[in-house]
């Protein structure tokens, strides 16, 4: 998977920009679906696999948005005080 995509997802997580992540995921999902439906002389499996890997990274970013940040966790008494980078 692409280091660039990890950095982009990380930036959107830091900005708490769920919509951007959801849009990125939807776009890649549409592309993968269209490629799976195509009849082609070319082997598209590696491209489809890359898109699915991208979706996995984006899902991890979305899951991180669903967890409390360190500040909220400390304020709510969850007992952990730093995020894993």
Descriptive report:
By secondary structure, this protein is mainly α. The protein has one domain (3-76). 72% of the residues lie in helices and 0% in strands. It contains 4 helices and no strands. The protein is elongated, with a radius of gyration of 16 Å. The two termini are 17 Å apart. The model has no long low-confidence stretch (mean pLDDT 86).
Number of domains: 1
Radius of gyration: 16 Å
Shape: elongated
Number of strands: 0
Chart the SSEs and their pairings:
Blueprint: H1 3-14, H2 18-37, H3 45-66, H4 70-76
Helix pairs in contact: 1-3, 2-3
Structure keywords:
4 helices; 85 residues; mainly alpha
Q: Summarize this, please?
A:
With 85 residues, the chain is mainly α.
């Amino acid at each position: 998977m692409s280091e660039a995509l990890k950095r982009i997802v990380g930036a959107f997580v830091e900005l708490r920009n769920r919509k951007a992540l959801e849009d990125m995921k939807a776009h890649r999902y549409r592309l993968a679906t269209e490629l799976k439906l195509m009849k082609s002389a070319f082997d598209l499996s590696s491209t489809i696999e890359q898109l699915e890997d991208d979706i996995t990274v984006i899902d991890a970013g979305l899951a991180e948005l669903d967890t409390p940040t360190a500040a909220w966790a400390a304020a709510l008494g969850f007992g952990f005080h730093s995020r894993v980078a």
